[in-house]
Design brief:
CATH architecture of the largest domain: 3-Layer(aba) Sandwich
Number of strands: 24
Strand order of the largest sheet: 13-14-15-16-19-20-21-22-23-24
Shape: elongated
Low-confidence stretches: 18-133, 642-655
Strand content: 15-25%
CATH superfamily of the largest domain: Alpha/Beta hydrolase fold, catalytic domain
Mean pLDDT: 75
Helix content: 25-40%
């Protein structure tokens, strides 16, 4: 019996020695960690707040040493108690052995999780909250063989919604439910090293696979990079090129290389992007082919629309969202006045032309022909001519003068009217112009909206309400179809758009044969009915470029519409989204909350009398594009059809009128007249401009960025 007890005591003494050896190794690791972290601090922050961080490191290391010392004391105490048990009985020896094994497991767990977590959450979080310095491709992966890929790490399951992996600020958690462009600066950028580590650009920390046991799910965290740890390394499996699903394909903007990320440690586990038990955090589970296990890298510095600049060697620089919306509103407003003067010339000599030679009016508005006889007419020429009219209260000249006055003289001089048509189709002519804008580097098509309901010009000539707005049912049109799918569009608008489409394409091709316009972009502008027809024309042109790859017309096609009724069904919306994802089409759609028109698909008359198109019981009509939703005092943006919303703070009550050159716009009813009582006011281009100025002028948003925020 005594010999057995001595043998058991000898075995236990060996186990205690191993425990002490483990503690000594841990102490060395702590000292090495302190030195490595000092080096990392120097690399990432370049001396910024060096004293503070060094002090923090020393305090952290001291605390770890104290913990280790306490562990030693506790272990010595346990040794004495266990030896006493050995002396007492065999049973006590067996119980002590079990307690020791449990203590060893707990001790290892403490070193593996508690201390390492301390390094990750205290010292490394300090890096994550530092707003001045970030990791770079030169400073990461220096022991990992260099950077293989850099960019946003998107989840394939929610690729359409542009969600990606983001390290939450001040935390070791990694979320998969943050829109990439909404993330804190560079918390959404990752370096994939050649050795398999994935490093966050903001914090310089690595993704780490935590292989929990039994009932606890495996998790993915970030902690301080250790180039020798396999639990921080991931292999890419079954890489595969994928693109947007469609029956016809020309573009490359939606193409992406998807892969699974398998942890080198653990038992065949892969990253999972949709672990949404308590919020959507990145987890891990047995590898399979489910989309939640697939990821892809994306270059965050480019939008899908930059593809064409690189492919065709053209400098396509797009202005801000506010500038695009602003110019679209000005252009749509001017088009009403130009169309009115041209119509007036057909009726004889307008009374406001008494002090101006009729020949000059005809020269600038080239009645009954589509191109000016002496070459393009600048808007500055039109502005100067109308300034000579003494009676400025006459509607058409005043309207053009006021809206043209918003643009600078240089912009007016550099914007030329190249083509003007208002005779096609015969049954219901559409008035539109093609303009060359040198300052903005645009060739733009401006579409006039509806004439006043019941007005002489509408009843006798344009017939906008009878033949464009009133036929608001949806019909199957092959011109708007992608592949074999049926696509239904609003009848009245589509018939008119189809009648003028070939003329517009012909003129655009002719213009882009001129080398001077090689880097110009194509835009469609329109208000109300003009916005709807602009949407159809821009869509048809983008679809033709997508299917036939017409090289003479640059891509993408841009549409800026305001107050536009809806024009297509679900299949139209689906194809529209494909063209957006492929980088062929971009659409900025402005909608006033109190305006009835954008909620309809046309109608026989404004307001309740046009309710046949207002009430869409079957939800046939669908929104398209990125919607600037103007709502006083809060405006927001969403992407259709997902309605992902970005709210804006209150701007306060409107007190003062708009400042020049916008002071001619009536903003007095914005805060005191609802859409039911003032439908015409809320539908007017002036109200759209006022709302745009009040709620979006200082936002600094860009349409291309918004697309990347919602489309992956």
């Amino acid at each position: 019996m005594k010999a057995e007890k001595n043998a058991i005591a000898f075995i236990l003494s060996i186990k205690w020695a191993l425990l002490f050896l483990n503690i000594d190794i841990t102490l060395c690791r702590v000292e090495n960690d302190e030195e490595r972290l000092r080096s990392t601090t120097k690399t990432y922050t370049k001396g910024y707040k060096k004293r503070t961080k060094t002090k923090s490191l020393k305090a952290s290391t001291k605390e770890k040493k104290n913990k280790t010392s306490n562990t030693k004391k506790s272990t010595n105490k346990n040794v004495e108690e266990s030896n006493t048990k050995v002396e007492n009985s065999n049973t006590n020896v067996e119980e002590s052995d079990f307690e020791f094994a449990e203590e060893i497991e707990n001790s290892d767990t403490e070193f593996a999780s508690s201390d390492d977590t301390e390094f990750a959450s205290s010292d490394d979080t300090e890096f994550a909250s530092d707003d001045t310095e970030f990791a770079s491709s030169d400073s990461v992966c220096f022991n990992g063989g260099g950077v293989k890929i850099e960019g946003q790490l998107h989840t394939a399951e929610l690729g359409y919604d542009a969600f990606c992996l983001v390290q939450l600020k001040g935390s070791d958690d990694v979320s998969s439910e943050v829109r990439c462009n909404d993330a804190e600066s560079d918390t959404n950028i990752w370096f994939y090293c050649n050795n398999g580590q994935i490093v966050n650009k903001r914090s310089g920390q690595c993704l780490a696979y935590i292989d929990n046991v039994f009932w606890r799910p495996d998790v993915i965290k970030v902690n301080r990079c250790d180039w020798n740890k396999n639990y921080q390394k991931f292999d890419k499996l079954d890489e595969q090129e994928r693109k947007v699903k469609s029956e016809s394909f020309r573009g490359k903007s939606s193409a992406r290389t998807e892969f699974r990320l398998k942890a080198r440690s653990g038992n065949n586990h892969c990253l999972s992007a949709r672990d949404c038990f308590f919020g959507c955090y990145v987890g891990a589970d047995f590898c399979n082919t489910d989309p939640k296990y697939r990821f892809f890298f994306k270059d965050d510095t480019k939008s899908r629309f930059d593809y064409w600049s690189e492919k065709e060697g053209k400098d396509f620089t797009f202005p801000s969202l506010y500038d695009e919306a602003h110019d679209g509103t000005v252009a749509s407003s001017i088009m009403y006045g130009l169309s009115t003067i041209r119509y007036d010339l057909r009726q004889g000599v307008p009374k406001y032309a008494k002090n101006i030679p009729v020949d000059d009016l005809k020269k600038y508005f080239f009645q009954d022909i589509q191109r000016p006889p002496e070459g393009p007419v600048t808007l500055q020429e039109i502005y100067s001519m109308l300034a000579g009219i003494p009676d400025v209260d006459l509607p058409a000249p005043k309207e053009i003068q006021e809206w043209l006055g918003i643009w600078s003289e240089q912009q007016r001089e550099k914007t030329s009217l190249y083509y003007f048509s208002d005779t096609i189709p015969n049954h219901s002519p559409l008035s539109f112009g093609i303009f060359v804008e040198e300052l903005s580097k645009r060739v733009s098509v401006w579409i006039k909206g509806s004439e006043g309901f019941g007005s002489q010009s509408d009843v006798n000539y344009f017939k906008d309400w009878k033949f464009k707005n009133e036929p608001c049912d949806f019909i199957n049109q092959s011109n708007y179809r992608l592949g074999n799918q049926s696509t239904r569009v609003q009848k009245g608008y589509s018939l008119v758009a189809d009648a003028v489409f070939s003329n517009i394409v012909k003129e655009l091709k002719s213009l882009f044969l001129v080398d001077a316009y090689n880097s110009y972009k194509v835009y469609f502008f329109g208000h109300s009915m003009g916005g709807s027809i602009s949407t159809l024309l821009g869509y048809r042109l983008a679809l033709e470029l997508y299917e036939n790859d017409t090289p003479s017309i640059p891509k993408p096609i841009s549409i800026v519409s305001l107050a536009a009724p809806q024009v297509g069904d679900f299949d139209f919306q689906k194809t529209f989204n494909i063209l957006e994802r492929e980088g062929f089409l971009r659409h900025l759609r402005m909608e006033n909350q109190e305006d009835w028109a954008p909620k309809t698909s046309g109608g026989a008359a404004p307001g309740l009398t046009g309710a046949g198109c207002f009430i869409d019981a079957l939800d046939t009509a669908k929104y398209v594009g990125i919607d600037v939703h103007l709502q006083y005092p809060e405006s927001y943006i969403y992407y259709t059809p997902e309605y992902a919303r970005v709210d804006y703070e209150d701007i306060g009550l409107l007190v003062d009128p708009l400042s020049p050159p916008y002071n001619f716009i009536d903003a007095s009813n914005i805060d005191n007249c609802g859409g039911f009582f003032c439908p015409t006011y809320w539908h007017a281009t002036g109200t759209y401009m006022a709302m745009l100025i009040l709620t979006f002028r200082e936002r600094g948003l860009y349409l291309n960025d918004l697309y990347e925020n919602w489309l992956a």
